[in-house]
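Fold sample X.
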Amino acid sequence: MGRRKIAEPFLLLLLVVSSVLQIRASDLLFYESFDEPFDGRWIASEKEDYKGIWQHSKSDGHEDYGLLVSEKARKYAIVKELDEPAILKDGTVVLQFEVRLQNGLECGGAYLKYLRPQEAGWVPKGFDNESPYSIMFGPDKCGSTNKVHFIFQHKNPKTGKYVEHHLKYPPSVPSDKLSHVYTAILKPDNELRILIDGEEKKKANFLSGDDFEPALTPPKTIPDPDDKKPADWDERAKIPDPDAVKPDDWDEDAPMEIEDEEAVKPEGWLDDEPEEIYDPEATKPEDWDDEEDGEWEPPKIDNPKCEILAGCGEWKRPMKRNPAYKGKWHAPLIDNPNYKGIWKPQNIDNPEYFELETPNFDPIAAIGIEIWTMQDGILFDNILITSDEKVAKSYREETWKPKYEVEKEKQKAEDAAAGFSDKISGFQKKIFNVLYKIADIPYLKAYKTEINNLIEKGETQPNVTIGVLVSILVVLLTVIFKILFGGSKPKASAAPTTGSKNDGATKVEDVKSSEEKEENEKEDEAGPRPRRSRRETSKVHFCRDLFLVVTVGPAWGSNDMASCYWARQRGLSCHWRRQITSDPFIDCPQLSVLQDRLFPFTMVGRKMGASFLLLLIASSLVQIWATDPLFYDSFDEPFEGRWVVTEKEDYKGIWKHAKSEGHEDYGLLVSEQAKKYAIVKELDEPAILKDGTVVLQFEVRLQNGLECGGAYLKYLRPQEAGWTAKGFDNESPYSIMFGPDKCGSTNKVHFILQHKNPKTGKYVEHHLKYPPSVPSDKLSHVYTAILKPDNELIILIDGEEKKKANFFSGDDFEPALVPPKTIPDPDDKKPEDWDERAKIPDPDAVKPDDWDEDAPMEIVDEEAVKPEGWLDDEPEEIDDPEATKPEDWDDEEDGEWEAPKIDNPKCEEAPGCGEWKKPLKRNPAYKGKWHAPLIDNPNYKGIWKPQEIDNPEYFELEKPDFEPIAAIGIEIWTMQDGILFDNILIATDEKVAESYRLEAWKPKYESEKEKQKAEEAASASSDGLSGIQKQVFDVLYKIADIPFLEPYKIKIIDVIEKAEKQPNLTIGILVSILVVVVTVIFRVLFGGKKPKAPAAPVNNAGAAESEVPENSEEKEESEKEEASAPQESEKEEASAPRPRRSRRET
């Protein structure tokens, strides 16, 4: 028993000592829990752009505090300087923090920036997106961006420039509203591991080009920028067979659809009734201004008479598929005998190449959060830097895990409560899908539009609709039940007379029934063309006869072909009917005018003119026919009825038909900030992308700039059965997505294509690598994508080539269109004894005896003396005496009001206030942690890679198998309003696209550019003054950095910062001082040369005698002062107080 009593204290002591040593070894480099208010420790940026307010707030449902993003649609910036920089070169380093997206994250960032040491003169209040960092890590989500960033800035030792290296294929951001913890582990063997909630999501190697873009080590060789492709180099693997001949029975001119000549107008069709009428219940809005908004017209509604009867308006025969249609003939492809492969320039030595064994990370001097976000409610917590993975894990278990479990249970309860509602919603969706399939039954084709209209109306009241359907079903089942089981009852016999009468009735009914059946079948065959409203664009029917009568939509009634062509170019309907004329100059006054101007003299001249003009017009029409666009919309007319706005709940942005600022030209306008928008236009006929050149072009004007949002188009492929334009959203599959997108680190003109893998049947998204950037001004810009038949893609901005790529090149698209033949074996594991470390610490090295690892970097300056006049009892800050409590302040909601703090004016006159502490100075004995020198690793085997196996998803392809474009959609999330889309075009000829640029875009652009130049010229004098001010203050800050002014640097900077608020007054004072100084110097240099009047000898001598001793005394005294000045300066520097720190400063 006695031995046990003695042993227990020793065991406990050993346990405590080992624990203390373990804690000592795994000490934190930095930790912030935000349990206490952050003011004074974290500094909010005072840059003008960053207006977001940070708050110290509880996490929803917890008593735990964090750092809260409190307002929507704001820029935020805050920074915390570390007491000692965290070194990233030695050993393992773990970066970890928590984020809870309490209101979700539609568009914004929630990442941290680990700042490297900043340049001299930088202050935390000046933290912004230009402040350089070592690492940026954390979630970011907006538009097509959804990733947990890991980006590091690394210095190229050859050029001295910092290069940004992005982690490839980073993990996605969790989509819920729970707390999540993000961990980045940097290992000494160059390995990076990304964890989310403690689970590994990504492993990478810093030196691997497969993991980072661009690779940390530049390539040894680069393509020679001066090498050009030879003119005779042929990259086409396949070419059309030159010996192939089009079959004689192949009619390229046969239209896809023809009028059904057997169709008959249904009985009851109302020719004189309009399809739409003004809404009789509509009233003019109270805020409608006729001057600004134009004359008010009530909105149109479907004519109720037309819904009851067969239809209204002019009846036209429906179209049916032409059995003779074969489309354009193409010669079959054969192997190109001149094929030389994809041309690449020769490689030359890379002048920026360097070798590296491990990344040369800059130390972390501060941690900053600098984000632009659409959401509020983002809560940061438990920010940690440590050198031990176990420490990071223990913090996850203790601080994050309990909160996460509580939130997860709460979410499960909410999901369970909403489960019944979700099931009902799913049941409703299935029923309406069945109804849409019924509408697709072939024999209901003639009435499909009416049926779809009824179903769409039914969808607005799903419960009522399903109730009616159930009632009908019950009635039908009752009738069937009665027929099946009710008729077995024996009937009473009837008189023969009655029976014969009944038989006669039956015969009459049978005859009548057969007649009705024939009539119904006839009507089915001649089903009416679906009723078209004025909001719909009818198909354009072309006719190559020379003289035509033009009938154009409700807005057009012109009879000349020039007007019709003009209308077609602007997306209006134009139906051309054949009409042969004897004398075109009589029937067409426009041609008559041309005739009189061209051939005004003789009758012979008139006849020659007619023939010449006919040839001219014929050749023009042939050219127009050959180069007509597949689709064009100028938005000159309102878009309603042609473009369909989605009715999905998330898309609340309102589209408007509006003029471009400063022009009479209309476009499609994004009218509100911070909204989701979706609108779609279904094409009359799908645009085929496989044959020949295809040009996609549209204009966008960012009238209010673009901080965060997209302005791209989606070219949709044919959708699944049951899809309607009103259901268009970000899930609607597309062939191509093209256009500008900008938010945070994203600034690119996207070109993304979705391509079907023929092996798996899955669609894969292929992104253009290194796309061009978005122009940063507010002018109209036109974006053009040219898809060539030789697999080449050309991106133009404003008609200027910005990017050229090849669809089959892995250097141009990511992932490559054709998958690799082999892939790393996913089952192959790295052997445990595989050593990837090129260098290892020298095992024989020994730490020198005089190396003190525990010596601190800075020590207290014991020789320092408190300055005279230091006010110990005065606080550094006081309540602002002029501040008043805001009228809308609510003590219950906002807490007890406190006046804001201001600097104590007494402290500005004195050397300082508050408790004086001796300043710190650098410890001469400090050497830091000792590390053994690195030597070559004798067991080094290189970077391990798994063995390659055949790729089951590999396929070969000669041309991309693009899906046709069935519709054009705009589906964006944007922070800005004022985005104006215009002149959307799909064509098969580059010249057509160029002509539209020159005619539709160029005049507007030139006008806007001239206006911009005039505005810049008007503000040139102001801008020049602003530039001078900036240069003056830059000089003043450099003066503050002069070494002998170091003790007064903080005060000097404070004075300069105050002066910056009144730059004109400050510069005026400086100029006045400069004038006085120059005047004094001038007087000293030139003022003494003037001859003096002679004076009495006595006075002169006396003066001379009296001046000499005085001058000598002054000289001796000045020499004494100069000799003692350095000593005084050193003494003052030694006794200089630690710079006064306010509660807002770290």
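Fold sample Y, listed below.
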Amino acid sequence: MFGDLFEEDYSSVSNYQYGKEKKLKTKTLEPPAPREFTNLSGIRNQGGTCYLNSLLQTLHFTPEFREALFSLGPEELGSFEDKDKPDAKVRIIPLQLQRLFAQLLVLDQDAASTADLTDSFGWTSNEEMRQHDVQELNRILFSALETSLVGTSGHDLINRLYHGTVVNQVVCKECKNVSEKQEDFLDLTVAVKNVSGLEDALWTMFVEEEVFDCDNLYHCGTCDRLVKATKSAKLRKLPPFLTVSLLRFNFDFVKRERYKETSCYTFPLRINLKPFCEQSDSDDLEYVYDLFSVIIHKGGCYGGHYHVYIKDVDHLGNWQLQEEESKPVVNLKDLQNEEEIDDDPLIILKAILLQEENNVIPVDQLGQKLLKKTGMSWNKKYRRQYGPLRKFLQLHSQIFLLSSDESTVSLLKNGSLQAESDFQRNDQHIFKTFTSESPGLNDKTSCPHWFDINDSKVQPIKEKDIERQFQGKESAYMLFYRKSQLQRPPEAQANPRYGVPCHLLSEMDAANIELQIKRAEWDSTNNNLELHLHLGPHYHFFSGALHPVVSQAESVWDLTFDKRKTLGDLRQSIFQLLEFWEGDMVLSVAKFVPAGLHVYQTLDGDDLTLWEMEIVDGEDLFVWNGVEVGGIQIPTGNDCEPLLINVLHLATGSEGDKCQQLIESPHVFPSNAQMGEVLTTLAVPMGVLFINATDPAEEENWVAIPREDLKKTFRELGLGNHNSLLIQDSRDDNSTLLTQGKWLTGMSEISWLQVQNLCELESEEKQVKISATMNTVVFDIRIKAIKELKLMKELAENSCLRPIGRNGKLLCPVPDSYTLKEAELKMGSSLGLCPGKAPTSSQLFLFFTVGSDVQPGTEMEIIVEETMSVGDCLKLMLEKSGLPGDTWHLRKMDWCYEAGEPLCEEDAALREVAIRSGDTLLLIEGKLPPPGFLRVPVWLYQPGGPMRHWKSPFRMNSTPSPGGVCRPASTHGAPGDPHGEVSLRFLGDLEISEDTTVAELKSQAMTLSPSSELVIPSPTFLRAWTMEGQRPSRLLRANQQQLKEYKLGRKTEICLEPLEKEENLGPHDVVLRTQMRLPGERAYTPCADLVWDTARGWTASSLRQRVAYFCSLPVEKIEIAKYFPEKFEWLPISSWNQQLTKRKKKKKQDNLQGAPYYLKDGDTIGIKNLLVEDDEDFSTVRDDLGKETQKQLALGKKSQEALRVPSSDLSSGAKTPGRPRAPEASLSIHVGSFR
């Protein structure tokens, strides 16, 4: 997404650099972290794909599913290399699943990515950010797989593993005739409400019989009359894997809202399904199933988070828990041996190294693994007795071998043999503890291995932890069982490579090698710290803090240093840099505070590494003698941190008397100073102190400090930097000082609603106020309003209350049964009493209008059943609008009042496409294209006015030819301004496949009739842009890239820009519009295109050099600026490389893609020739006019808002019940045809 913003630079960087030149510190993108101690890989969340991750992990830990998918080779599925070939049938979804499962098994990374898989689903970035239901995904994914595997040996994969049948029987009590109906299932959906657990639900479904008698008789075909009968259901065929979906979400018909059932619902770890099946002679073990996965939902019915509990059937992961239960009694001698081993670091370090590949490990990781094994770091457990870790390894050189840079350590061969013999001879139980990194060695078959997989995080859990998911907001949502008779082959145990195809193993092995190389490079690069050394002799102490004597630049030296080196090494390096230094050198951590530089803690321990001392990148270090600076002893530490306090007091006149003017002055006090020192400093011994206790949203409020609190410190009273204190002399009776502060005043609570008469019936009152509380029912308010307005009683049966929005629009009617709290109405809201009934619980109240240009108050209203199809609703709206024809479709208005995605499924019910009461639907002319196709409006585009590149028979301001609309786009620039004009000519609509390339799009656009007036030699003479707000937005730069790779939505419009010569842009090329400023005039020449290669970075220096070469001017004799047309402003682009200080923070800004420039394709760059003009102004006369127009518009808007204040305040709380929550969107996976 960011292109080469994070492109790695492998240039060499020395251990430390110094001087006045700015250092280049290589910054590489951090590679994925290796797997954690569980040895299992999670899946990264793309924003809202936790539901997808949970289901994919379940399928991955279903070995039979995984291996059946692996058994399909490239000869059946195709290969990724052929996916772009037109005639190749590449089954992309199974291929992506194969690759994902191989990554989860073999690739050494903590979390895999599903980006390629969701791309194969045809999902856009919006769908990846939107959460869906995992039960729905399970059915849709299985359907997509079945479609993808048609014609292969895996065509019955889903049917073979998950398909079962249920038989429904009706038995006539008269003739005993049995009527049967068989149903297939891939998952069983069971009730949760009023059911104690899974077995109880299955008993209700498959054991209990429904009796037809009395008024509910059954018509028997054999008897040919109504008879008594019984109805029952049984499981006829059980699949190897049983999926159970729990109906946690229900609808409350009283409150008319969805809710989540959080009551207790138990389910067994092992279940016998024989009581629920047809009678059979099969062995009982055929009906026994074991639980192996539980997908859990945390949250409510409108959102939440999914994670999954999974049983590791093949023991692929390292399952190890610190037992909190009471330990059994052990032999005292064994306990003493274990304590001796725990106290011997030599044995523990040997044990860790024995488990590593080739017995080699980085020293930093050795310390981390020691922490995991013993629960304590080396410094806390062994440092006092054995010294630093590296020194301990050096002292035992007969066993350990350190690398030349002391970054890695290995175990010598004789040390390895000696360690193994020690374990075999004396301490076999320690081997059980330290083989946790090798899964399968210490596994206990009696203890199932369960893991909690939460996106990227994988944690081992106990089997009893599953009971926590029986109830609550975080509870089980889907259950997965496997037949207990299914046995795994011994070679699959603890073997992640088992069953993985050779070509995928080779791909993963190569990827692992690449990851190791990247991690080594990243480790080398990112172990450098940039330190800022503040030299004591260049500072002096005043006003409670340290300040530079000359300038900040002269007082600070920057040093890049390896954090794996010790404090002693750092001190020695600084001694070598500062040849003038004499005497002791003390290094202290310092920090800038508003008062100046303050010294906190002195660094101690020359044999500690900077990493162990927790020195961070960009740390400020003060270099001094540890006692004084400039002859003044320096207070250090957090307790005496200087605080900058604003003190307010009355000014003193020339004759010593106090004026009525309040002045504010800053003062610095140590944090541990007493509050009374403020009075002493300002020579007001009998004064009274006030603290400003004002909240940001409240009015000003001053609180007096009691006399006894004057002995408390600033820190004890919670004062910080920039807090305000107010001083009043207690001998002064004048209260002017206090009256200048404002005190909080309470507001009386509003306890009424305003109801307006909108029934078109005359009444004495137009509106009335109805007293109410938040628990008042809407029906009562409506009846009271009818009485007080003295309207006809008949309105009680045929009227409703509708909230009035801020703009005066009537919102969706509020159901009579709601309370004000349920309807989300605030006190003081304004309601309208309107004719007509409110919709029932099964009906929808909808607004609709024709076209996408929605004007407030012009919408029409309709009440329809929520089961009505989209197509029928469209016909009804067309009929009510009086519009003929069938070339229309519906779109839902989104949250920003624009036309959203079209409602494509005309046969779907309104509720199935997430249409709710209060939604606005738009009638848009035009029939929707078939699936896999886009209808793209195409425009001819020319920046800077009429065509300057091509001679054409039409002009942009001329009368358009038939089929084309010629007009300048609405822009923010003033008319005639070169950087403000954009001319567009509509060419027509293209119905085009998503698999079409950009080059093919251009070729087809050239066949549209208005474009045929232009003589364009080939598509390479056209530049394609997407449009946003009638302006070019994103450049479609790669001619051979397919449209679907750009993830164009259904609302996308394309504009084509003719060029004078062929153009084939590279991935790093950026197209900019340059304009040279006319000397002596506030105007510019017409724009000229400049192509800038950003492969070496988006720096200001690189852009300046490219512009200077383009204009044939010296780089130091030009100034450039980016134009922001929406603000009518020019922002100069200075060369940061020439202006950089030694501070690191400013170096991070050297990227024009980021703030404040946000440079992109199509931006306008103004150029000024300093040889003929040296002022700093880039603006034009039209910019001044544009700013003035914006200012007038803003003032007019404020005045209109001021006139609307009374009504808007009253109606601000009015909300329609269905509006607050985001709409639910349907889920789909796009699959090609393989029949």
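Sample Y note: The longest strand covers residues 288-300.
Also: Residues 750 and 827 are 6 Å apart (CA to CA).
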